[in-house]
Amino acid sequence: MVSAGVFVGLIVVVTILSKSHADRNVYPSAGVLFVHVLEREYFKGEFPPYPKAGDSSNDPITFNTNLKGYPDRPGWLRYIQRTPHSDGVLYGSPTAEHVGKPTIIEITAYNKRTFETARHNLVINIMSTEEFPLPYQAEFFIKNMNVEEMLASEVLGDFLGAVKNVWQPERLNAINITSALDRGGRVPLPINDLKEGVYVMVGADVQFSSCLREVETPQNQLRCSQEMEPVISCDKKFRAQFHIDWCKISLVDITKVVAVHSNRPDPGTGVLPDIGEYNPPSESLKSRDYFTDFLITLAVPSAVALVLFIILAYSMCCRREGVIQLVHHSSIQKSTKELRSMSKNREIAWPLSTLPVFHPVSGEVVPPLHPDNYETTSMPLMQTQTNLQNQIQIPQQQSSGRSLIGSCSLMGPMSCPVS
């Protein structure tokens, strides 16, 4: 990585250029698993070291891989890198269609500490062999592994050794490895060190062993349908390191598979032919009269509504049941009106709280304030004594001496006023 600095006033302009490694050639075989590790140590020497000698140079490095001249990789090639502090892995299974066609993969390493890049090309030369593909292929689903763990040569070698013990073939090879996430699986919860799972396809040159065939028995098929683990005699040979879901095992004999050939058209150049300018349709098109359609749109709903109205009128007015219903409804309305008029005109006894009372100061009589026709629900129980608009004054009697004497004589000498 070469960097040049130009100082102008207080502005520093830094130009970062990338170094390019020499091309690396690899020679995988068609139908056999291809694994290429992008080692971070290989690119660390191209990036500047830390300023202090004592600092550990553990730079976060990520990789970008793409087919030369294209934004993505070939369909058979996958790439995975969990963290910027782990190595990247290119893996896949090339097919016979890619034999003889060199595949150039551009690999760009990004240093996230210095923002520098390093680039080199990986040339994949796919070779053809007469031994592949092997006729008998079995695909296992391993639940306690991630794809990058399974791609490690030691782990993959241990798994192939366990398969060889239960299969006993002369030739056994790993054909392909696929993450469960690429098959529609869910991302596991980050608890209990759960794994996403991985599918591993292997091929052999002999028939499937009786142990692998045990999953096809009716008892095990029933257990799988009930989401229970089937009983497999050779499971203990895998259980120590690999937890296999035997309900998801797939056994394929490619010698009995009927090949389906589809007649695909030859792909073109992707450029439309030059057919001249666009010519709009002529004005000689026949016009269409929508008046009939308009009448039908209105006439049909109107006719249906009219028929329904006639049926309803006949049922309510011409039939005995309808007439009875109308008469009954009318009698209910008349009775309701009559009861309401009677309730308004009825005479009731006045409550004691509404009788005339005397004013506590002036001694005047205060009558209850209520109209002749009223509703008992709206009549207050106690009349306000402050409203003096309708008060009835008690007429004062003109007492004469005779009348006073007579009254005093009747009531007693103690009740006569003293003048």
Automatic annotation (TrEMBL):
Segments passing through the bilayer: 294-314
Record flagged with keyword Cytoplasm: yes
Topology in membrane: Single-pass membrane protein
Keyword Transcription regulation: no
Highest taxon of the lineage: Eukaryota
Compartments it resides in: Cell membrane, Sarcolemma; Cell projection, Dendrite; Cytoplasm, Cytoskeleton; Golgi apparatus
Domain Dystroglycan-type cadherin-like span(s) in chain numbering: 25-133
Swiss-Prot/TrEMBL keywords: Cell membrane, Cell projection, Cytoplasm, Cytoskeleton, Glycoprotein, Golgi apparatus, Membrane, Signal, Transmembrane, Transmembrane helix, Ubl conjugation
GO annotations of cellular component type: cytoskeleton; dendrite; Golgi apparatus; sarcoglycan complex; sarcolemma
MF terms (GO), sorted A to Z: calcium ion binding
SMART domains: CADG
Similarity section: Belongs to the sarcoglycan alpha/epsilon family.
Chain's role: Component of the sarcoglycan complex, a subcomplex of the dystrophin-glycoprotein complex which forms a link between the F-actin cytoskeleton and the extracellular matrix.
Name of the molecule in the record: Epsilon-sarcoglycan
